[in-house]
Design a protein that fits this description.
CATH superfamily of the largest domain: PurM-like, N-terminal domain
Mean pLDDT: 92
CATH architecture of the largest domain: 2-Layer Sandwich
Number of strands: 11
Structural class: alpha+beta
CATH topology of the largest domain: 60s Ribosomal Protein L30, Chain: A
Strand content: 25-35%
CATH class of the largest domain: Alpha Beta
Distance between the termini: 13 Å
Number of domains: 2
Radius of gyration: 19 Å
Oligomer: single chain
Number of helices: 8
Length: about 300
């Protein structure tokens, strides 16, 4: 069987099936970050690793500064999904020996720009030669308060679904200059009980079904309500991927208050009510789209 026949989610499920979780592991594979017991009371450790691959996540002619920005920002976006604070990063750079030194230095300049913005210290890493395309891999450790961390599996039937920002348009370089929604996520969990949350990396067509499945519910989306990047169609908003916006669910009792307070706090960033979570028997995703799926 080839990887393209198995698909990403089934592959990951098989790879981690025999991984043993100790008693200190609170959330392992299957969420945006791994969550483990912290060294002190009231806090948990978050761990995340991610990578960008030349030809998949960026083109050879892209600005190395932008590539470095994206490599770090997409990892930090997963911390936003769980309302965490990233703290320390390790960088692994794998590149052909013929690549210009200036290219690698610009990669690191882009990495540092994002890291500095969110007070993340780059504390080490690795370099390696490769004959194929370049790869930048980032591993980050951070923390979150026990009463503020959010997973994908807490959604409830009747919850309202919200999305930050606009969807679609990654082909127009949007995926190279986005800002991780860490500040917004921290603000949300300080004021509201967010039941489930994740960042939209593979497109809402792939990620919303994942959130619903983890929560054991279905969903219903008003396609006309989806906030689209200018010039994007509804299918592009659903399937393009690499939006790195927040998708979250909370009680309908809090929805009105959230919308009013959001407008005052983040006047330049839209917040859109796109639908709701439903009982599994009534939720549907048959014609919703599929987003981006690796190996297929």
């Amino acid at each position: 069987m080839k990887l393209r026949e198995l698909g990403e989610e089934r592959l990951v499920a098989q790879l981690v099936a025999r991984c043993k979780a100790g008693r200190k592991v609170i959330a392992g594979p299957g969420d945006d970050c791994a969550v483990v017991a912290g060294p002190g009371a009231g806090r948990l450790l978050l761990l995340k690793t991610d990578c960008v691959v030349e030809g998949i996540h960026f083109r050879s002619n892209e600005s190395p500064l932008a590539i470095g920005w994206k490599a770090m920002a997409r990892t930090l976006s997963d911390f936003a999904a769980m309302s965490g604070r990233p703290q320390f990063a390790l960088v692994t750079l794998i590149a052909p020996a013929g690549r210009e030194v200036r290219w690698t230095k610009e990669i690191y300049r882009g990495l540092r720009r994002v890291a500095d913005r969110f007070a993340v210290a780059i504390v080490g890493g690795e370099t390696s030669e490769i004959e194929g395309p370049a790869v930048v891999s980032i591993s980050v450790v951070g923390t979150v308060e026990k009463d503020r961390w959010v997973s994908r599996d807490g959604g409830k039937a009747g919850d309202v679904l919200f999305v930050t920002g606009k969807l679609g348009g990654s082909i127009r370089r949007k995926h190279l200059n986005f800002i991780p929604r860490i500040d917004e996520a921290r603000w949300l969990t300080a004021r509201f009980r967010i039941h489930a949350m994740m960042d939209l990396s593979d497109g809402i067509g792939a990620d919303l079904p994942r959130l619903a499945a983890a929560s054991g519910v279905g969903f219903e989306v008003d396609l006309k309500a989806l906030p689209r990047t200018r010039g994007c169609s509804v299918p592009q908003a659903i399937n393009d991927g690499e939006d790195y916006e927040l998708l979250f669910a909370l009680s309908p009792n809090d929805a009105g208050s959230l919308e009013a307070k959001w407008r005052k706090k983040f006047p330049r960033l839209s917040l859109t009510r796109i639908g709701s979570l439903q009982r599994r028997s009534t939720g549907s995703k048959q014609q919703f789209g599929r987003g981006y799926v690796h190996f297929q």
